[in-house]
């Protein structure tokens, strides 16, 4: 699977401002679901390598309930390193290692 590259706005959930996310495009989310359809641990999470700017990290993406897009948590260390905050738009690259599925 090719890396998914997209622009997305950072947001936090009303229930907690500590967690910040970006949503993957719906078409990419659908392809990820199809290509990783084996049972997955941890709320259906998928292991990824993510990049914003010059910062790359390994993490997991999680599906929204009801078949919505996958969401990528963006750590505070990444936001600080890249000078981004909730409401900013970032260019994000997500790579999935399909050999794990």
Automatic annotation (TrEMBL):
<dbReference type="InterPro" id="IPR015018">
    <property type="entry name" value="DUF1905"/>
</dbReference>
<dbReference type="InterPro" id="IPR037079">
    <property type="entry name" value="AF2212/PG0164-like_sf"/>
</dbReference>
<protein>
    <recommendedName>
        <fullName>DUF1905 domain-containing protein</fullName>
    </recommendedName>
</protein>
<dbReference type="Pfam" id="PF08922">
    <property type="entry name" value="DUF1905"/>
</dbReference>
């Amino acid at each position: 699977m090719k890396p998914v590259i997209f622009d997305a706005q950072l947001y936090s959930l009303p229930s907690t401002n500590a967690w910040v996310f970006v949503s993957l495009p719906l078409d990419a989310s659908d392809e990820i679901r199809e290509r990783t359809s084996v049972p997955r641990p941890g709320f259906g999470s998928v292991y990824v390598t993510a990049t914003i700017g010059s910062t790359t990290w390994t993490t997991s993406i999680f599906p929204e309930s009801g078949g919505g897009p996958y969401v990528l948590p963006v750590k505070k260390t990444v936001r600080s390193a890249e000078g981004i905050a909730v409401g900013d738009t970032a260019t994000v690259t997500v790579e999935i290692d399909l050999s794990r599925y």
